[in-house]
Queue: 4 jobs
Job 1
Amino acid sequence: LDWAKTKCPPDQWLDADIQSEALSIMAFEMQARSGFGTRVKTEQIKSIMPRQVQLDPKWPPQPSPPSQILRLAAKAKIIEMPVDNSTVRFSHQLIQEYFAAHQVLKKSPANMADLWRWPWYETEMPLWLRPENNYEPPPPPPPTGWEETTILAVGSALENDNQLLRSVLEINPILAGRCLLQIQDRCNLNDRKAIIDRLLKTISDPEVALRVRISAGELLGSLGDPRIGEMIVIPAGKFLMGEGREQHLLYLSEYKIGKYPVTNAEYKLFLAADGYKNKSYWTEAGWQEICQKQDKPRLWHDDRYNKPNQPVIGLSWYACVAYCRWLSRETGRLIRLPTEAEWEKAARGIDGRTYPWGDEFEAVRLNAREGNQKVCTTTPIGIYQSGKSPFGLFDCSGNVWEWCATRWKKPYPYLADKKEWDSEYLEGQNLRVLRGGSWNYKAEATRCANRFKFQPYGWTERGGFRFVVQD
């Protein structure tokens, strides 16, 4: 507007604050009635524009003639009007959002609630049918159209004034989280914690729509997921291992295992520490087969799989061993891959159930190639609350195959010895065990007792892991 003032005769100019206020009212009303980018008849626009604006409650309102406001805005290229001036639209969506955001700051949160509210529960979510031959992840929840405007408004609020952010949080925690991403340093710790807590509550509620839970989980990854690295203690005792005629009782000592698979955020630290360049972390075969050919996992830069709190995938067994050795050195504790028996007990509990939740397969409890909500990629850790194991582990069935230390095929009854992390046992090119199935496998592969194998040098888009801490 300052630039436009130099091009305008003084007697035709209106103060920039008057123009901005009138345009913000116009932008808000246009967005509320017609959305973005829509051409609206000029006479309709004039009918909703203010004839006067009050910039300061202590002083009388000042005239804001609609025709003059539109003419000045067109000269400043804020809006577009054809030669006959019959229609109006903002010249860019961001410009309309910018002006509308200033009006949002003046609105009562009660009047904005419906503009922030998404369909939240599965019963409210519009049905999305995957097109034929479409293997992309499902879309996020349908937007209201006010997301970017609200984010701009929160970012424009006075420093330390987070009342608008708190109001958004009450209606839409995901939108509040997106706002938080824009104002990180300006948000106090209490408000930040409140947003993260609400996002955690969102992903923990199985009644919340899957598309909402995925969005909340991805946002947690961007904000810093506090769940990453959590461990579960598996008490000493016997459990039923295997299935059918091979099923048997096996005693294991107490151990700690990851509550979730290792994430991209965790593996990133290994890469930053020159994990693929330090030979001491790798077995001899791993150094030759992996580090001479690559310096990161195969899918590290693939947007479908590389969000901070998605499980890291595309890993060879060798790379999982190297990560554990690196983390052992960093922490001063023995970090290792679980044995096949340790993985199975943690996943199914002690009673021999088929899946972490029971004996019947239910597609809504895991990320697999089943049911009518196939995700077609990995999901952020821990968004299938109803699929956790009796000990509290998440994602044991589906999401990502998990490497174990064990060589294929160890005979049953299983001998629980201490040798599966010995250097000699880890060397060589033996086939290694994977457990749990993945997002791209059917129900049969996700059974807790299902045994699978692969060459240790790699596992395309499916191989991940979780680790054991041995005190």
Job 2
Amino acid sequence: MKHQKLYAALTIVITLVVTAFFLKEIRHNARMETDLDEYMPKTHPAFLYSDQAEEWFNIKDGILIALENKNGIYNPQTLQKIKDISKALQDMPQFEDNDVTSLYTADNITGSEYGLEVNSFYKRVPKSEEKLEELRVNVRGNDMAYGRVVSEDETVALVVAGMTDSLFTDTFYQEILSFANEYEGDGDKIYVAGRPIVEGTMGKLGPKDMKKMVPIVILVITLVLFLLLRSTRATITTLFTVFISTIWAFGLMAALGVPIFAVSTMIPVMLIAIGVAYGIYFYNHLKQYYRDKPETNSWNAVKHVLKVLWKPLMMAAFTTMIGFVSLITSQVFPIKYFGLFTAFGISIAFALTLIFIPATIVLFGYKARHGKINEDDKGYTKINHFTDRMLSNKKVIYITVAVLIVVSIFGTSKVWINSSFLSNFEKDSEIVLTDKFVNSKFGGTSTLNVVLESEESGVFKQPKTLELIDKMQAETVQLAKVGNSFSLADYLKRMNKVMNADDDAYYRIPESNEMVAQYLLLYEMSGDPENLAKVVNYDYNRTNITFQLKGDDSRTINEALTVIQKYEDQFSEQGIEMNYAGSGYKALVFTGLILDGQIKSIILSLLIVLALLSVMFRSFKAGLIGSLPIIITALISFGVMGLFNIPLSTTTALLSSIAIGIGIDYAIHFMQHYRTNIANMEHRHDAIHFTMKQTGKAILYNAIVVIAGFMVLLFSVFPPNRTLGALVSLNMFTSLAGTLTVMMILVYGAKLFMKKKLKK
């Protein structure tokens, strides 16, 4: 026994040393990733092309600063703020002069006796009522400014600053907010929106959410564990194993340079909720052994439990890991890494259950507490009664399940995908309300870029091509969720109008190639050629059309693309290829990758689980019956999502893997014990009864702990996390119910594991 205690002490010391190493890695190397481009695969053709197009046309996600004055922006004070904000942003290293667009910096294209003049709307802030009114008239008559940098009700002015994502840091996020808010007051209200702000907000809330969630889940799990195990030492030891597994998971991420994404903040909740189940199984078997042999020493007790438990526990852990590892098929980095490191954490929780917990028992001992025998008998009577009722009412069970499956299939057909990053926030949160406000006043905070390419130089100087672009823009902006559009056609329409005495009848594409070429030459002589570089290349065989969208969700983007793609054949007839770029299109492709990864992970995990169960129990029939509860659970989950209009997102895409990974544990433990019992009993009726007594309670305890752990997600600041918590809790309940009803009935009826003819 002395040697055993030495080995136990050494095990504990090594575990603590490794834990200390990973804690150091977390402290020095852990980082939060908020750049949404980092969610996406760099090698995907759509992203490669988008990145190339962004470089061609200097396409950047913008920080939008809106100044609202309910009495109107045409006053010296507000106009001075617009100027000051614009100049201050231009002076920041994160922005270039041409990246800042506002009433102060925007081109005001006008005609003169000398040709075209391109100036800003104002250099000096107008003071007199006459000058202010002149500015108002100029803006109203300029479609390139009216409704774009000044709202149509003239109460809001917009400053847009495009920036490279790599330059946007958490520190700069705070700086830009503080900077903008300095201009608030004296009747002016400031709103800050745009994708970089969304990223910064996620980066700010993610760690806060994890700091809030972990203590809550620890408290809940501690209380539940103590109530179930009735042992302070067992509760602490079990919790310690999952804490260590969480530290190792995040420590490995930090050591490998893998960043923490928003979805990664749920890993601790996952590991705590799942990992404690192994401890429950261990201590339940230990308690049963001490009940039968109260005088045994801790070493013999541990050996017995490990002998009985290691195989079903290993299979349970392995299948759970498979559920999460299957997420590696996703091309979405947060989902892929979530699956990998959650699986790693589960493997550590399993290993510590078989190594660390026995070491603490050998070193410190274990005092089992037993309930009264009559209480146990009363509980067993209830279990027997439940089992008999299920077996005698199997037709009712089958019909109920069939109805649930039909309803779930119908609901599944209604599941939709949401790629909106704003859906991560509360509908009444400041960032969502700000986004809605800016969208209501201007074209939209999200963009979709359409890139047209041809091998023919000068093709985008041809009126027929420009007219087709203009026609496509005009039809697309009729959509409710599409605000403005901008292209070379808009420049030429403006130039044609001002060169014809500002006659609205000439707000159209010039009629001849020569006139188009002349206008462009005049602009290049009068204005800044770099502005044209945002919409067309030097050879005029590649052009960029920007659509502003009042939403970043897939439905909005698809609606716009439905109209845009109607023109694809017409452009193709002119030898022009249509492609897409920008954050809006990336979000749409991102949506497709989520769906593709979801389908692949479900199929892969189900096939692997089926194969493993079939091999483990040496029966394909057993594998199929064991897989049935999680198949039903997965169907019900998606059915509920469809019926309650819950979208598939980066967060809810984890649902199926969690459901399969955890839910299969119940089937494994039940079937493993049933196989053992039926081999040692004369009647299969006795075997099913004893299995329900033996494992039903442990499975129930497991489900209670997991449900309690995931219900904690209801306290998350991120709505998708709360949705996931509720859905996983539902999954665990359906998996529990499916195992102890449908699967139990099928196992009994199919006469599994019977090597000889037994009496009923």
Job 3
Amino acid sequence: MPRASANAHRFGRSRRAWAASVALIALGLPVAQLSAQDLGERPLEETPAPPPAPETDAAGNRQVAFEADQLSYDENGETLTATGNVVLRSGERSVRADTVTYNRTTGRIVADGRVRFVDENGNQLFTDTVELTDQFEAGTMADLLIALRQGGRLAARTGERTADGAIALTDAAYSGCPVETPEGCAKEPTWRITADRVVYDPSTNKVRFRGAFLEILGLRLLPLPALVINTTGEAQSGFLVPSIQVSQNNGVEVSQGYYWRLAPNRDLSARATVFTEAPPMIDAQWRHLTDMGAYQVTGYLTASRRVPDPADPSATERDLRGYLFTNGTAQFDPNWRLTSSLRLASDRTFLRRYDISYDDRLRSMANLERIEDRSYLSIAGWYTQTLRPFDVQGQIPIVLPAIDYRRRLGSPVLGGTVELQANTLALFRPDGQDTQRGFASARWDLRRITPLGQMVQFSALARGDVYNSTANALTATPIYRGEEGWQARGVALAAVEASWPLVGELFGGTQVLTPRVQIVAAPAIRNLVVPNEDSRAIDLEDTNLFDLNRFPGYDRVEDGVRVTYGLDWQLTRPGWEVRSTIGQSYRFSGNRDVLVDGTGIYNNVSDIVGRTQIKFSDLVRFTHRFRLDKDNFAIRRNEIDATVGSSRTYVELGYLRLNRNITTVEDLQDREEARVAARIAFANYWSVFGSGVFNLTDSEEDPTATSDGFQAIRTRLGVAYADECLEMGLTWRRDYITAGDARRGNTFQIYFALRGLGFR
């Protein structure tokens, strides 16, 4: 029999059946009882959707185009029946069913058998029977599934369209999780929300629940009163998932928060935390995305006892305690940008006690920058709050302003590039030395490649410095003080560096062997007359071996004549990459008063430094850095960082030992530490993980050390589950150091995060 059609538009026929069995598994209901309340696989169209049919005629009456395998008409009942692959279309809406009946007297349209209704937003409704309204909308339904265009799914026993166009469902379930594995096998959704009543509003993409409960891995865990979600995956105002933690400091901790989505570009979240062994605490976070950038403000507040004086741990008081953290960026135009950050704590142990941060210093800063093609300007300032128990806050510098300007000339000078720089710094200490600095410099660089392939670079630097300092005697280390009052000095140096890359084949790959040699010459520089504020942590490393000035800042500059020589080697083959460098320097002349014996560059002949990096596919990353004593090859620096494994199963190892034998300078003391972290995946989505940080420094390495050579700082162990829409876990952590009211002890945390709901 030829297929009946009301117009020329025709739909392609779906060749994939609706997977009702998957849905029943997802809800755990028998087929005979609820065939349509299914969160299962969404049927796929194998042919492109046809062009939409006109919604109305010239008179404004709604038009419905249809096609079917067979049509019949009952004159007595005034009923038209279409059977066999029936397709109804009106505008962007369409209905497919086995049978459709239309009563001309009542205007009632009923679709039966494998019904699939698609609305103008692309949402799909599957059911066995649906009554269509006179506006060609789904009316009363039973045993239905709604596959939302954004990916979520709603299933219910019954449903009806309300007067405002929303769909009200009873005995419903919702999930945003996949219901099949990457291999295409059916699976239950990791989480779902069941409710007595659900109202879905297609116009706002919001789903409102009444009598809702959250189920994870088939277990009903907690009620969700007044829950509203956005089916687009965007954040939605509502209660956040509670968190539970047990700690040595505060006992049992239970947190409950609320999230306000005030606009697409700003939101506010607030949380209250109650403790069994401490007063309650509140915290809040404000986030705002503006036309020029973004910023956020986070604050914590409580009233509890604290230890005000580390020297007297028994002295406690009850006081307001808290923490304020803000940061943001504003881009005023393509060139001007402002970056700022503010971090302030009420006392030195608040962050540790409440498990917010383990930072020992909090830095606040503001930086106004102008960036152009050949110039850069920075106007900055910063303040640092120390959280170390015995640090004197008044000895921590406040910097305001720090101005740096650089400009690269557009035209070459003697064939090379010239960069001009001007810099000024004002540094204040309430209970210590104050320093102001300014300098102007010019640097010239010329790089050439010889006919034989050698690369040669010539460099020259000229700089004039002006310093002013007061209260210099308050600086504990004499070589850092400088002379009080106004001081001036000149800096000049010249350098030439040559390297020769030699390329060849090795082990089925390509190797590059590059010898390097550098000569740097500078006249005597008046280093000790000016303070040392930014060049204290000097240590010869592979990263600064060939620098023109191996001090990390501007306040100290190496003088004299030295030659530096080294060798770089690289091997590349499929899946493998090995990089290695080694080098040393020899000083012919120069003042050593600004250097400390043990830093590697104090004597004429420096220590030997090097680095080796190994990378194999994405499974192995290994880095080893070292410094060997020039006289006896004793290891003065030994640093290892290694990662072995995939993103799901891996081991990370870290080790650092500084054996410089320096006891007179606080910034250069020896230390030895190790860290380890590992994760092992098992089953499909489960993993166990652990980590530890250990202090290996003993009294021989650091006379002030209290460790016996092995002191655990922090260890962690846990188990976690993570898939496409759920992350949860249990973590145990132990802290081994007591600082004021932040006591050593165990902490247990239960956490989970739901993806696709817009909250954590």
Job 4
Amino acid sequence: MFYTDEQLLELVTAPESPTLERKQSFTDKNKDKICRTLCAFANDLAGLGQPGVVLLGVADDGSVTGVDANDALLQKIDQIRAEGKIQPLPSLMVRKLPWQGKTLVAIMVQPSSLPPVAFDGRIWVRLSASTQQASQEDERLLAERRRTRAGRSFDSEGVPAASLQDLNQIYFLSTYLPQAVAPDVLEANGRSLQERLMTTHMATADAQQPVPTVAGLLTTGLSPQDWLAGAYVQFIRYAGTEHGGAVMDEKRITGNLEDVINGTEAIFKAHIQTTVDITGQDRERRQPDYPLPALQQLFRNAILHRNYEGTNTPVRVYWFDDRIEIASPGGPYGTVTAQNFGQPYATDYRNPIVAGVLFNLKYVQKFGFGIQNARKLLAENGNPAPEFEIGQTMVVVTVRKVT
């Protein structure tokens, strides 16, 4: 919904913001700059879901100068649509507003349902109160948002350059399929291999012939990293407590999702140290410095929710003398924000097909409670609560050693 005149007039004295830009006039000289700002408002990188407003007749210092809102000015503004330089064209509306004997003009733009929006071949975004050209990561986030609004996720997309021969069909038939489909259905349906791959979202027929999906390559690919270079785990065990210290152990865990998870968690088991206390006890008491089930919850959460698109960054596990850091590329997604991150039921899925795969392979038992379970397991073992650093392009969880 666009703003009412009353709401627009309230913006006259407001400072510039991610959704408000003030301009003293509209001229041929500043027209492109205004178009870039309209483009940025349409992209709504911050995800505010509010119309953006360019308010004409207000100077940078906030003083109201007014504009001559004649037909010539309004025709110049209308040319923004006709020129077709903003693509795809968002919904625009122009209003004339009276203000203390002067006239203002508000150009409003709705957040686009088809981001990224470009002006003259370049994508622009709003950062605080300024308009800047989008970075590669900004463009990826906007493209991801477009797919989500269209009901598609990156992991459901086909990979045209790959073929079904790039999938481990023996693994699919003998290991994954029996866990994804009920036995009686498997026995009765008589579907071909291609049909089974498509039914389980391991392949798609969007192209001229069936091709693997991103999730299919991650789950059953013979060499997933050939197609998704960042789909692996980097493990480093440092001596001491600082990044860049002496490396005691380093591993690159590759393969399909099952290989990556099992391989990494085997390393966890090898590095966890357990103390034995028999003082004053009828039985010995064993306490690990980290409870393995808590690490599994947090690590699998990173694999599930990471971004696989447009990045060669792996999930990183850094193990120090006093803590473990698990870094997952990709910030909060969908309804999950930095404010509700880790709360019960606050969950959304960047990779819904991968989520189903991990559930079928029994790596996930219940969605939306992994972090809560990890907190509980750490507390029971005597570890501090996990610490989360939540950025737009990375989430890092730090687990501190039991003291």
